[in-house]
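We close this part of the discussion by returning to an individual protein. Part of our work consisted of pairing the sequence of a single chain with a tokenised description of its backbone. What the numbers capture is local backbone geometry rather than side-chain detail. The amino acid sequence and the backbone structure tokens for this protein are reproduced below.
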Amino acid sequence: MRKKIKRFLRELRGQVALRAALRRGGPLGDLTRFERSVHSQNGEDGILEAIFARIGPGGRSFVEFGVEDGRECNTRHLAERHGWSGLLMDGGHEDARRNLRREMITAENVVGLFRQYGVPAALDLLSIDIDGNDYWVWRALAPHWRARVVVIEYNASEGPEASTSIVYDPAFRWDETDYMGASLGALVALGATHRYTLVACDSRGVNAFFVADELVEGNFTRRPAAELWRPPRFLDGGGHRRHPSRRLQPV
């Protein structure tokens, strides 16, 4: 009960802080103060509300993959509360009611899947969470589809400066160790190549939030990645167990 009360109070403070920040105007600073979880795991709902409150919702379109059955994900709150719509994909689940399609995402097929499902060219939100080839899939997709906002998981155990990723393997299956995904530095460099700026990482060290460069000025405070990075705090205050032999490689 105490945890629920603390969570409610934290979310309430986040909503109050966002309303106050919007009234004051000017660029938003630390976005973790707006964290709020309705259907997300790590406060993503509140951070996304803050981002789109500042830059506007656009056409309210999204694509999210790695959502499992779609009940707990980064876009459900936007769809149910704010009238957004889009495509969900997951390798093990399908639900036509949610437009959730059963697809294994790889760097080779992601562009074809976007075309197959008619993803609009003017995309507002892209959310990537596949516990492995995240960097490689975004790299394959970025030249072809541009979202106004990208949320992607990063491997916080690599620290704020390293530029590393798992070795690409289209058949990769995560074994719940720290051999997963890519470092924040690798994602920041990839984002910069395609004109995205890192504006936040959630306080548990799970997700990185990128905004298209043309929408950053005047809306968000530019801060170095080392200041935005958060250490892994998602498992009893720590991260995943160390893989006995495999390490992320430079990219």
The longest strand covers residues 146-153. The chain has one domain: 2-250. DSSP finds seven helices and nine strands in the chain.
